[in-house]
Design a protein that fits this description.
This protein is α+β, with helices and mostly antiparallel strands. It has six helices and ten strands. Strands 1, 2, 3, 4, 5, 6, 7, 8, 9 and 10 form a ten-stranded antiparallel sheet that branches. The chain starts with 76 loop residues before the first helix and ends in a 5-residue tail after the last helix. It comes from Streptomyces atratus.
Length: 369
């Protein structure tokens, strides 16, 4: 702690050297005239005035260090406090011996710079006499010590407490952050719901598209079947079975020693002799007459070059170069050539002369022998 020089010791009437030079005769403003009643007739003595100065007061170290001024005094209230304590200490020592109160004199240079006590915050109310001016001072003293951070708008709204303003701002910021968090959570929920709805909609759409595709495919297949049936019907209308009242006895490729090639090369329709033989499709008669083991044979050439052979006829009803139509009679069933009984031996050859299965060819034209 800072230390000051001790104040001069006040003279005491009880000191053994009192009146012999101890404590100079003390008169003047400090302490007034000091009387010593009942002092064996010794003359009355006064007290010397002691004023705290820079020479007699050690500078205070720390926050309230005394700064030197041009006039030798300090403006800080610290000097005043030290002086007052020293004076009071000296006076107290005197009054402790039953002496009258000592008046304290403060230099004018210090008192001129002292603030008015009523202007100090929180102190002016102690000196109020109830006047309007004092009330105003009380209001000023009770006002906050600082208004830092208060905006003009807040002042206009009557806010004067910076702490309350800070608290309100913190609460407002917390509410804004909470609102932002709530908004973000709602946005996330809405996004999740939207994505879920979109996924469900996509699923429903895919399901609907798959159903439509399946129905379309089914419809296409049905349409294809109908078109094929219609085509076969048209072909059937333009193609005809070569005879009637028949029985299929031998098929294409069937093996046997009866045939010189070792296998059957056509399709046999067994029927009574004289049963009419009809043109399967419209075409031109390419040949008509005897043909060795085939007996009486008629060859009908179609527009695409396909040849139809009608063999083992008992009679021929057309001539070479004649144009015939579907279902027109061109001859009759017989047993001429290499046969074991009356029947129509039918062969089908492509334009290059290759023999093919007559049963398959007829079915391809919508016929079912």
């Amino acid at each position: 702690m800072a230390s000051n020089k001790p104040a001069p010791e006040a003279p005491s009437r009880f000191h053994p050297d009192y009146g012999t030079g101890y404590g100079a005769e003390f008169t003047g403003e400090f302490g007034g005239d000091l009387r010593t009643d009942g002092n064996n007739g010794e003359p009355e003595r006064g007290w010397d005035e002691w004023n705290p100065t820079e020479e007699s007061v050690r500078p205070v170290r720390g926050r309230h260090r005394v700064a030197k001024q041009r006039n030798g005094l300090a403006r800080s209230s610290t000097v005043l406090g030290v002086g007052v304590m020293a004076a009071v200490g000296a006076g107290g020592m005197a009054t402790a011996q039953g002496k009258p109160p000592v008046s304290i004199s403060v230099p004018d240079a210090i008192t001129d710079n002292l603030p008015d006590a009523k202007s100090l915050p929180g102190v002016g109310s102690l000196f109020s006499d109830g006047s309007q001016a004092d009330k105003a001072e009380i209001a000023a003293a009770s006002a906050p010590l600082t208004t830092a951070g208060i905006t003009t708008a807040e002042v206009e709204q009557g806010t004067t407490d910076a702490g309350e303003v800070l608290r309100a701002r913190i609460l407002q910021q917390a509410e804004q952050q909470q609102d932002a968090a709530d908004a973000e959570a709602r946005a996330a929920q809405e996004k999740e719901a939207a994505e879920k709805a979109a996924a469900e909609a996509k699923k429903q759409q895919d399901k609907a598209e798959a159903k439509v595709a399946a129905e379309k495919k089914k419809a296409e297949e049905e349409a294809k079947k109908k078109a094929e049936a219609l085509r076969l019907a048209k072909l059937a209308a333009s193609y005809a079975i070569p005879t009637s009242s028949y029985t299929i006895t031998s098929t294409f490729g069937q093996a046997g020693s009866m045939w010189s090639s070792g296998h059957h090369t056509g399709l046999d329709f067994a029927a009574p002799t004289g049963t009419p033989i009809k043109a399967i499709h419209g075409g031109t008669v390419k040949s008509a007459g005897w043909s060795g083991s085939y007996g009486y044979r008629t060859v009908l050439e179609l527009d695409n070059g396909t040849e139809l052979w009608f063999c083992h006829q008992s009679s021929i009803g057309v001539s070479v170069g004649q144009k015939v139509t579907t279902g027109e009679t061109i001859g009759r069933v017989g047993a001429t050539g290499n046969v074991t009984g009356p029947h129509l031996h039918l062969e089908v050859h492509t334009a290059d002369g290759t023999g093919i299965d007559p049963m398959a060819w007829l079915r391809g034209k919508g016929l079912n022998p």
